[in-house]
Amino acid sequence: MREVLADAAFQLFLERGFEQTTVDDIVARAGVGRRSFFRYFPSKEDAVFPDHEGCLADMAAFLETSDDPDPVSRVCDAARLVLRMYAAKPEYSVQRYRLTREVPGLRTYELSVVRRYERKLAGYLRACWAGTPDSELRAEVTAAAVVAAHNNALRSWLRSGGEGDAEAAVAHALGMVRHTWGAAPDGSGAEGADDEVIVMVTSKRAPLWRVVQQVESALGAD
Amino acid sequence: MREVLADAAFQLFLERGFEQTTVDDIVARAGVGRRSFFRYFPSKEDAVFPDHEGCLADMAAFLETSDDPDPVSRVCDAARLVLRMYAAKPEYSVQRYRLTREVPGLRTYELSVVRRYERKLAGYLRACWAGTPDSELRAEVTAAAVVAAHNNALRSWLRSGGEGDAEAAVAHALGMVRHTWGAAPDGSGAEGADDEVIVMVTSKRAPLWRVVQQVESALGAD
Q: Would you state the pLDDT for residue A219?
């Protein structure tokens, strides 16, 4: 029923425009009563994004069960669940992206959804890093960077009309964040690793993000 | 007139609540006609945040004239204009923060304001870095990190009721971003610096953000 309503709503939004479509139009198209709509969706906006609630729940479950030793890798992988949701229905995702660009109310709604993902990831990192210096600050900055990197790649894919390998683009974008903010990629976590040293030589002119790439490379990650 | 209307609106929002106050109430309190309100503010929400439009313009002007050689330092300093706007009226800022927490429409409005700052900073960085690899991705991730760091410190200050040194807290938070994503702090920019080398020895177990701090320290910044 939920899916029938969301499909009817989306078809009408494409045909007539979002503002011009009423809830009465939607329930008439879906062949159900008006109260059914509000049982599933608090507002018309919610019917445009019916899958985020489920994706947020999947993300929480993923974070609880992930066994990656690095919390930053975990939140990067959690963010990729969002990409997979979009990539599973490319045509629908691209049409919705175009609709959202045209309707200010949908753009604002989308911002609040993005903020919910960001808060979930930040809360998770804060708990992982509890008791370390600046844990809340690092958690919020890292979560914002993860979400910005993910959305940069997702938006490029949507703008292109769903062309190209979205998974690879998101992996590349998140890799930049993981390599900057994540733990050393030796796979051993904080305990039990040999306390090896590396010696790195770099130009003093290099910007720090490039130095980080060099450090990362010296540490022997992929 | 604009300020008179914003003051009248804010007093009424505190006295009666945001939802319970109409535009008619506001213009009656300010002693002007209804059309005057909409000449200055597109909506009730805009009257709660009357200074952001000016701050966005100040930010653009600041970025155009800054002579700091590092674009990341420039956007960090630009972000601090927002903090200064809040810190200039501590009591008003704290009251508004509390009001915003209670009214979902104001929280959504605030998200769209934050997004406007983020887009401005990202657009500036993208132009600075045009032609370099992943310039758009780096610009968006860096802008998101700057805004998240700034807002983390600003929110802590607002939550505390305006206690403590907000400028110092924001400087500390932005320092973390600048030291991670900014150019090497030798003050010379990309051209003309001696191509000196540093040698750094670090534990392979160290998380990369800590390695960055060490690099930064080795590079001799404050």
A: 65
Residue B160 CB: number of other CB atoms within 10 A?
Answer: 12
**Which structural domain range is residue B173 located in?**
51-183
For residue B162, being part of any structural domain is answered with: yes
| Contact check, Cβ <8 Å, A212/B207 | no
Q: Which DSSP letter does residue B197 get?
A: E
Please indicate, yes or no, whether residues B42 and B55 belong to a single structural domain of this protein.
no
Integer Cα distance of A64 and B207 in angstroms: 22
Residues B122 and B12 in one domain: no
* Partners of residue A140 in chain B, C-beta under 8 Å: 148-149, 151-152
Task: Find, in chain B, the residue whose alpha carbon is nearest to that of A140.
Answer: B148
User: Model's pTM, two decimal places?
Assistant: 0.83
Note down pLDDT in tens along chain B; length 222 residues.
899 999 999 999 999 999 999 999 999 999 998 888 999 999 999 999 999 999 999 999 999 999 999 999 999 999 999 999 999 999 999 999 999 999 999 999 999 999 999 999 999 999 999 999 999 999 999 999 999 999 999 999 999 999 999 999 999 999 999 888 776 544 333 333 445 555 566 666 666 677 776 666 666 654
Tell me what pLDDT residue B200 has.
62
- Chain B residue with the nearest C-alpha to that of A145: B141
Compute the nearest-CA separation of B38 from chain A (Å): 19
Q: At what angle do helices A135-159 and A90-102 cross, to 10 degrees?
A: 100
Give chain B positions within 8 Å (CB) of A202. 197-198, 200
**B189 found inside a domain:** no
Nearest CA distance, A210 vs chain B (angstrom): 9
Residues B21 and B91 in one domain: no
ipTM of the complex: 0.82
B200 belongs to a structural domain: yes
| Structural domains of chain B, count | 3
Question: Which sign, positive or negative, has the C-alpha torsion A59, A63, A65, A70?
Answer: positive
Helix (H, G, I), strand (E, B) or coil at B198: strand
Of A144, A201, A211, the CB nearest to B145: A144
Measured between beta carbons, which residues in chain B are less than 8 angstroms from residue A136? 152
| Mean pLDDT score across all residues of chain B | 88
Q: List, run by run, the mean pLDDT of 10-residue segments along chain A (222 residues).
A: 93 95 95 91 93 95 93 96 95 96 93 96 96 94 97 97 95 91 51 50 67 67 48
Task: Identify the closest residue of chain B to A104 by CA–CA distance.
Answer: B112
Query: Is residue A45 a contact partner of residue A24, using CB atoms and an 8 Å limit?
Result: no
- The strand pairing partners of A199, in sequence order, are B201
CATH of residue A19's domain is 1.10.10.60
Same domain, yes or no, for A22 and A131? no
Contact A16, A25 (CB under 8 A): yes
Residue B163 has a CB neighbour count (10 Å cut-off) of 11
Residue finishing a domain among A45, A65, A80? A45
Q: Tens digits of per-residue pLDDT, A109-167?
A: 999 999 999 999 999 999 999 999 999 999 999 999 999 999 999 999 999 999 999 99
